[in-house]
Amino acid sequence: MPDQSLPEAPTPEAGTPDAATAVTRSTKARAPKTPAPKTPAPAGESSRQPASADSPAKDLTRRRLLGASGLVLGTAGAAAGYAAAPAQATPLSSVGAGQAMFHVKHQPGITQGLQARGHLVAFDLAAGAGRKEAAALLRRWSETARRLMAGEAAAHDDTDVARDAGPSSLTVTFGFGSSFFTRTGLEKQRPVALDPLPAFSSDHLDATRSNGDLWVQIGADDALVAFHALRAIQKDAGSAAKVRWQMNGFNRTPGATAHPMTARNLMGQMDGTRNPKPDESDFDQRIFVPADSGKDPAWMANGSYAVVRRIRMLLDDWEKLSLKAQEQVIGRRKADGAALSGGTETTEMDLEKTDANGDLVVPINAHARITRPDQNGGAAMLRRPFSYHDGIDPDGTPDAGLLFVCWQADPLRGFVTVQRKLDRGDALSQYIRHESSGLFAVPGGAAEGEYVGQRLLEA
User: Fold this and answer.
1) CB neighbour list of residue 315: distance below 8 Å, 6 or more residues apart
2) Do 18 and 10 form a contact (C-beta atoms < 8 A)?
């Protein structure tokens, strides 16, 4: 799990419709009401007045029903029993208002912040289904994704699961596995980058939960909105494709922390500190396929390659380690994510610093040291994972860990380069196990009037 990051609490992009909407809704939700002057109650009567439809007491009841906790309520007399939220906290009332756009240069679900709930699903085309059926399926899926991401109902047989919610930053992302090109007779259009990933020493892969013809990533900041999209996508598959495998994950809910910060994984570590940032000059070069790539087919312009790995964390073994031992394995302080060489989370790691005994402060096999781009010829990838917990095994050990999803313009230069380095001596490797794997070509976003993959399927 390379040491990189994305903001945990997404905010609407400037210039998008939801940017102003979210601010307006959030401001309205927090605007204090001015209570009417109270008349002293006659002797012998309670000083509490009945709650009118617009009274603070009624407003407090509504907010309790919404599950507010630790958030400023913003209504007179409603503060009892609640702690005021820090100024930068995201009010829960604004979570549903977030909206990602479907018709964009790069498919949604790549550069957006981590989402609270996610589903990863792989499909195989049904026997006899080919290019024609695949094109019709992608057309249906694209229209459904567009509607649901806008907070609308599905075009047909909507389940009403998300009827009461806003878009909740829903994203739906589509990709193609290597086998898709054989099934559709498009072998000549298959990117070289989809060649199988090499084997690694930490691999214990289950073939039934790996790869697939088609891959769909669903993310949202509300569990029901995410599930609603999952069911709609599954229903749209109809007789054209069947589910090969499905994995369900989660992250911290936006607004749960005082301010946006690097996410923590199930080991309690900040996970993703050195993720490439969109404002870096070489971000697009590392993450997205350029239009004039030369080595990628034209239909992959503005797309990216997703490596998907289900990584089990051996939590019982990990939690037996002392805090100091855990920090030595990672190379960073658990409390704030700062490198063991000192400073804050964003302070550059001093790889040469030694302690009084002359030992390296950041151990030579520390995970954070090994995964640094400058230790891997500049190799980098954009990590956008979900945690998962699928219950307890018969022997009592938790089936929990990371649904690792990383994005790069070239998986051989990105994931493979870093994972090979980890394979040669990462201290974290004895506490994790890679149990499934997939590599998918994710084309660029669909333009207005297009569906995802149209430039491949109708070339």
Assistant:
1) 266, 267, 397, 398, 400
2) no
Average pLDDT over residues 29-46: 40
DSSP-derived letter for residue 262 is: B
Gap between the Cα atoms of 64 and 139, Å rounded? 42
This prediction has a pTM of 0.81
Query: Per residue in 59-96, is it b (16+ CB within 10 Å) or e — as a string?
Result: bbeebeeeebeebbbbbeebeeebeebeeebbbbbbbb
Name the percent of the chain lying above pLDDT 70: 80
Find tokens 């939590």 and name the residue: 315
Contacts for 133 with CB less than 8 Å, ≥ 6 apart: 125, 126, 240
The CA distance from 128 to 166, in Å, is: 39
Pick from 296, 292, 329: nearest CA to 422: 329
Using the predicted structure, report yes or no on whether residue 47 has a pLDDT greater than 50.
no
Tell me how far apart the alpha carbons of residues 30 and 28 are, in angstroms, rounded to a whole number.
5
Residues facing 241 on adjacent strands? 125
Q: Which residues are known to be catalytic?
A: 271
Residue 346 has pLDDT above 60, yes or no: yes
Provide the token pair at 9. 């609490």
Hey, what are 306's tokens?
A: 């997703």
Left if phi > 0, otherwise alpha if psi is -120 to 50, otherwise beta: which for 425? Answer: left
CA 314 to chain centroid, in Å, comes to 22
Q: Which SS3 state, helix, strand or coil, does residue 38 take?
A: coil
Helix, strand, or coil (residue 293): coil
Amino acid found at 306: A
pLDDT at 248 over 80: yes
User: Given its phi and psi angles, is residue 366 left (phi above 0), alpha (psi -120 to 50 degrees) or beta?
Assistant: beta
Cα torsion angle, 260, 261, 262, 265, sign: negative
Nearest to 173 by CA among 204, 199, 151, 142: 142
Give, in degrees to the nearest 5, the angle at Cα 254 between 251 and 256: 90
Q: What is the pLDDT of residue 129?
A: 97
Find out whether 91 and 85 touch, Cβ atoms under 8 Å: yes
pLDDT of residue 93: 64
Pick the closest to residue 175 from 44, 58, 52, 308 (CA basis).
308
Residues 6+ apart with CB under 8 A from 206: 435, 436
Alpha helices in 283-330 (DSSP H): 283-287, 315-318, 323-330
Let me know the angle formed at the C-alpha of 452 by 447 and 456, rounded to the nearest 5 degrees: 105
Helix 131-149 and helix 223-237, axial crossing angle in degrees, nearest 10: 160
CA distance 115 to 168: 9
Tokens standing for 236? 């749209």
What's the rounded Cα separation, in Å, for the pair 314 and 430? 8
Distance CA 80, CA 69 (A): 12
